[in-house]
Amino acid sequence: MARISVRFASVTLKPPKNRPVGPDVPTRPRIDIVEARETDPPGGVKPTHWRLLTSHGVETFDQARWITQLHRRHRVIEQLFRTVKSKGFDIEKVSIETAPSRPLCAMTLVAGVSCMQFVQDRDGEGQRPPQDVFDAEDLPVLQAVSGSLEGKTEKQKNPHPKGSLAFAAWVCARLGGWTGYYGKPGPVVMLRGLYQFRAIQLGYEIAGNV
Hints:
This protein is α+β, with helices and mostly antiparallel strands. Helices cover about 40% and strands about 10% of the residues.
């Protein structure tokens, strides 16, 4: 927990000295700044200090606090980009001239968001349903795979209710290489596990139709 002091003001930006400004650009555009500073950090810890520029109007404390809440989400956005880029789908190698580039990018983004949903609710605090990511017909496969991954000790068992997204996140994390003992699985681990699960799911469906 941290105690943060927040203040805000409106400022104007000077035009660049070495670059001409077009006639449709204001010479001194108005912008709002929000400063958030940790007032009493623990000893030896560098205090949090944000100076945030925004095009949103900030005239009240609630609006300033909302801006700081938006900034707190930047790490989630960075993790999402990391998942869809070189650490995950490697979407950067897709040429924009490729015919299905837009649908492919959209599908990749959806899958990346699914991995972030796993990460956000991996502890079960959000109490989200598995239908946020999976279809209803996927749930029996999730339960079967979970049973195959569990060990004899409580630490090796899936600790989450079967009808929860956290239950599915545990399955994908284990399939992605997480042992269950050290650290917490991130989006790249979840992505690897989701790949594995989809392959298992395909085999499950084929076996059911033979």
